[in-house]
Amino acid sequence: MGGTKSHEYHLVSEVGEDILAECKHCKELYNQEILQMAEENNAVKALGNRNNVSLAENQIHTCPSCGSSEFTYQNSIEVC
Ligand SMILES: [Zn+2]
């Protein structure tokens, strides 16, 4: 099956920075990582193709709530 995905990119990204994606339509706020994982699953199913997933603002996400693909991205530092 080869289900190993590169979750590591989050860790190797900038020092503890998260990217939040805010849906322009319903104003839902998502962690980009979560959107990316969801879409990675879809993309793998649809294309059978796993591209190198980079922290890309140009990657198109789809809002799980309203289906919009317009997001505003903002950096945020996760404080534990
Ligand atoms: Zn939305």
Bound molecules: zinc ion
Our count of helices gives 2
Helix content: 25-40%
Overall spatial form: globular
Domain unit count: 1
For the sheet with most strands, the description reads: 3 strands, antiparallel
- Radius of gyration, Cα only, in angstroms? 13 Å
C-alpha termini separation: 35 Å
The low-confidence runs, each spanning 5 or more residues with pLDDT under 50, are 6-13, 53-57
- Give the strand content: 15-25%
Number of strands: 3
Summarize the helix and strand pattern as letters: HEEHE
**Oligomeric form:** single chain
Can you list the strand order of the major beta sheet? 2-1-3
Mean pLDDT: 70
Question: Helices and strands: which structural class?
Answer: alpha+beta
Commentary on this structure:
- Mean pLDDT is 70; it is low at 6-13 and 53-57.
- This protein has a three-stranded antiparallel β-sheet.
- It has one domain.
- The radius of gyration is 13 Å and the shape is globular.
- Helices cover 25% and strands 21% of the residues.
- It contains two helices and three strands, in the order H-E-E-H-E.
- Zinc ion is lined by residues 23, 25-26, 28, 63, 65-66, 68.
